[in-house]
Amino acid sequence: MKLIGSTTSPYVRKARIVLAEKHIGYNFELDGPWNADSHVPDYNPLGKVPVLIMDDGTSLFDSRVIVEYLDSVNPVSRLIPESNRRRIMVKRWEALADGICDAAAAVYLEHKRQGMQQSQEWISRQQNKVARGLEMASRELGDKKWCDGNVYTLADIALGCALGYLAFRFPEIEWRNNLSNLAELFERLEKRPPFMETTPHD
After folding, report:
1. How far apart are CA 110 and CA 81, in angstroms?
2. What pLDDT is recorded for position 115?
3. pLDDT at 34
4. Would you list the DSSP string of 60-122?
């Protein structure tokens, strides 16, 4: 298998961590949709990463689809529970984490536009989404060790990638001081080899 993506995308990082946790071998091809010579649209018409190229040449895109497929490939260390209620709640965590990433990425891209073209109203709307998402994540996590309770799942990976993206692109957001349980979870996650090996960088 081959994974196409960048070292900065939290969605690519999520897929890379799942691949590592599932002990699935793959080749990692660096390519970003913003590169002038990008081949990403050749595999994903939406021009987004990650893209997973399976052994038969079929391409999978959207990180949620990719990680669900990967979890089904190898029964070892299941990251998405089979129980319907728990499964839905883990996927809900993933949706929340990805939503935080969506909003944060929107702010990052808006800041790259020239000053006169930037919309402060748009930036504020996205920043509020990030703040509300973090508050909900902290509230839902409570005093549990992991998002799903005592078991490490895709929920923790997705949230860890979202928090890692904020730490990388928006170090000025003080969620570590204001939401201590998220900070503690993030510290635990960052000690795991798959997280250490995928720390985002330009």
Report:
1. 37
2. 80
3. 86
4. EESHHHHHHHHHHH--TT-SS-SSHHHHHHHHHHHHHHHHHHHHHHHHHHHHTS-GGG--HHH
* The token pair that represents 151 in the structure block: 């078991």
What local confidence, expressed as pLDDT, does residue 83 receive?
86
Q: What is the pLDDT of residue 76?
A: 79
Q: Which domain CATH number covers 172?
A: 1.20.1050.10
The bridge status of strand 2-5 relative to strand 51-53 is antiparallel
Q: What is the pTM of this model?
A: 0.97
In a domain, 202, yes or no: no
> Is residue 86 within 8 Å of residue 146, measured between CB atoms?
no
What are φ and ψ of residue 4, in 5° steps? Answer: -110, 130
Rounded CA-CA distance 166/163 in Å is 5
Cis peptide preceding 45, ω within 30 of 0: no
Q: Which domain holds residue 31?
A: 2-73
Residue positions counted in the chain:
202
Look at the chain and report how many structural domains it folds into: 2
Low-confidence residues of the chain, pLDDT below 50? none
Per-residue burial over 92-110, b if 16 or more Cβ lie within 10 Å, else e, is ebbebbbbbbbbbbbbeee
The last residue of a domain, from among 17, 45, 73: 73
